[in-house]
Amino acid sequence: MTGRTPRLSRLRRVTPEGRAGRSVEARGAKPRRRGAQPKVVALGGGMGLSASLAALRRITGDLTAVVTVADDGGSSGRLRDELGVLPPGDLRKALAALCGDDEWGQTWARVIQHRFQSKGDLHEHAVGNLLIVALWEQLGDHVQALDLVGRLLGAHGRVLPMSAVPLELQALVKGHDPERPDDVDTVRGQATVALTPGEVQSVHLVPNDPPAVPEAVAAVLDADWVVLGPGSWFSSVIPHLLVPELLDALTETKARRVLSLNLAPQPGETDGFSPQRHLEVLGRHAPKLALDVVLADEAAVPDRDLLTDAAKRFGAAVELAPVARTDGSPRHDTELLAAAYDRIFRMHGRIGPWR
Questions:
Q1: Residues 123 and 199 placed together within one structural domain of the fold
Q2: Suppose 332 and one of 12, 51, 157, 275 were both cysteines; which one would form an S-S bond, judging by CB atoms 3.0 to 4.6 Å apart?
Q3: Where is composition skewed (Basic and acidic residues) in this entry (predicted)?
């Protein structure tokens, strides 16, 4: 933890009928002693997960990231194709987000994010990707290697892949070919799905029913809070729900579950999506998933009633808070997001304060 206190922010609470006052103890979760830090697991990938981790590390020292491993573009895709390894890019980004704000942490964050610029084979490879893959080859253990990188960086948390098998994301997309706007095609690869000009109908993983990393399942089952999102909806958030053991853990855990919505639709992948539509497609992929809180930026929700109705189908309350940067970009403000999570953990968990 950095010891920094996030700026307080105002959250507007919209609670569906029958949910008010339901404590963690009422759901059977084991109570934690006063002053203990919450065990938090954050799931996702890419910049969305990085934003969540940078915020969460400010309010707990017991933090685990579970990261998607379906990336097939850029440096990660090249290493995956050449060496048959897991794509390391999203794992690297998560580790960088967990680096501290001191000189050591920020130096190492810059180092592992550094990309070589050349006219040769190293062009655009990230230093952290090469380091992670080298340790995988040396140690033969994905989790042990990532833990070792985390120790080197002084990371404020742990990073785990959701599966130890490289995965391919496939999507059914309507209008992927602009010349055939009514046709539905199978689009292969996370990078292609993320940039499709068509409308994504659904996604699935290849191989089907991939095994989850046991440590990731154990972390979800042992958590006090699980945070899903923000991030690329079809390529970073929903894939976690397509790993059967991980979905079972998310369904069975006694932890409370927060879904953090994006600040704006993503061009291509979720172009034109309303906040409630994000929930609808999530429900189609995991109809048995229950949530406790849906967090959204208040300025990104044009119709609060529609979002509240969509959240009710998951059994969730809606929390609206200013969590976006003030520069107009669709990016989260770390301090505001930390304050929102902190307030949710205290208000809904009733087992704080932890700090």
A1: no
A2: 51
A3: 14-28
